[in-house]
Design brief:
heterodimer; A: about 110 residues; 6-stranded mixed β-sheet; B: mainly beta; 4-stranded antiparallel β-sheet
Chain lengths: ~110, ~120
């Protein structure tokens, strides 16, 4: 079955840029979505089709996808961005999530 | 506004059965695909199952195939997940999820708060 690999944790200082990677075989040939889940809340869609933002998602969230790696970039990271982040794609009619990355804003 | 409210979770013994429900409002229910996604304690998100707006097509993760069944009642605007032969590893918060732009290869747009299922003796 298809697998997506994310780093377990990423740390960033407030105001700096955070990057979270997501790797999978020929991932660049697929569409990737990103979600975050703040403590005690439901997951929320941040990015779809690699780099599109739903309405209401701040511009500081951006995405890219090429080769075997997709990347979520958070510019000007804020304390409220501390959360678990997940990449997701579809393979053989099944949705696949990465293992998740805990973003800590120090 | 889209609202998805799950119910039916609880404590069940291994081998037992449980049915989750998701009451939907704020959108045209029959138009859109719906899914269940779970998160086990200390683990990440795992897609469980999905169903098209008409109910004609259903998909399952390998981990639940043959044990879980997804269905919907469009007249009642309700999504269901019937779970049989439950195992300890099925313990999780189960989220009801709406897709607004398709089925496979489409994002998970709106999420409910979830219903906790605990499988333990």
């Amino acid at each position: 079955s298809y697998e997506l690999t994310q780093p377990p944790s990423v740390s960033v200082s407030p105001g700096q840029t955070a990057s979270i990677s997501c790797s999978g075989d020929k991932l660049g040939d697929k569409f990737v979505c990103w979600y975050h889940q703040r403590p005690g809340q439901s997951p929320e869609l941040l990015i779809y089709q690699d780099n599109k933002r739903p309405s209401g998602i701040p511009e500081r969230f951006s995405g890219s996808n090429s080769g075997n790696t997709a990347t979520l970039t958070i510019s000007g990271t804020q304390a409220m961005d501390e959360a678990d982040y997940y990449c997701q794609t579809w393979d053989s009619s099944a949705a696949v999530f990465g293992g998740g990355t805990k973003l800590t804003v120090l | 506004d889209v609202q998805l409210v799950e119910s039916g979770g609880g404590l069940v013994q291994p081998g037992g059965s449980l049915r989750l429900s998701c009451a939907a409002s704020g959108f045209t229910f029959t138009t859109y695909a719906m899914n269940w996604v779970r998160r086990a304690p200390g683990k990440g998100l795992e897609w469980v199952s999905g169903i098209t707006g008409s109910g004609a097509t259903t998909l399952y993760a390998d981990s639940v195939k043959g044990r879980f069944s997804i269905s919907r009642d469009n007249s009642e605007r309700t999504l269901y997940l019937q779970m049989h032969s439950l195992r300890a590893e099925d313990t999780a918060v189960y989220h009801c999820v709406l897709q607004k732009t398709g089925f496979t290869n489409s994002p998970f747009d709106n999420w409910g708060r979830g219903s906790l299922v605990t499988v333990s003796s």
